[in-house]
Specification:
mainly alpha, 0% strand, disordered C terminus
Length: 154
């Protein structure tokens, strides 16, 4: 038996409630990321370009699984097809990972930001574009009735 379609506000950003839920689920994923990043820091991945990149990229990839689940359940509260949304999540996070790793590198090594400041800037920017990408592409069925996509031919 399928779950009822949750109401969603139309528009680029949707409603404040959805944006808040995205912030909560993303915040929980970010806490997991910070914890894993701290573990990599304690192991010794810090102070070189490669070490800083590994300390950013590996936890990012691992916590993408956690954050995907949180976004499905908390932010968008939608019973979307799991594997489709997971693939799209990794496309979104893959592009975001590439962009934020480059940004993180430039902030630390080019502009001489501290690690924490670079982290805050990178997470803030990626959070904004990730929300828009998830809302309009990662979980698009959340904007249409659940059976509409299965009734289409093509």
């Amino acid at each position: 038996m399928s779950q009822p379609t949750p109401p969603r506000k139309p528009g680029l950003l949707g409603g404040l409630e959805e944006l808040f839920r995205f912030g909560v689920s993303g915040g929980l994923g970010t806490l997991a990321f910070v914890f894993l990043s701290w573990i990599f820091f304690k192991i010794g991945f810090e102070g070189t370009r490669l070490g800083d990149g590994i300390r950013w990229a590996v936890p990012y990839l691992l916590t993408s699984l956690i954050t995907h689940w949180l976004h499905r359940r908390i932010a968008f509260r939608w019973p979307s097809p799991y594997w489709r949304s997971l693939r799209r999540t990794y496309v979104i996070y893959g592009c975001s990972l590439f962009a934020t790793t480059f940004l993180h590198d430039q902030l630390i090594w080019g502009l001489e930001f501290g690690s924490v400041a670079a982290f805050v800037v990178s997470v803030a920017l990626s959070g904004g574009w990730n929300y828009l990408l998830f809302r309009h592409w990662g979980f698009p069925e959340a904007q249409e009735p659940p059976h509409a996509s299965s009734n289409r031919r093509g």
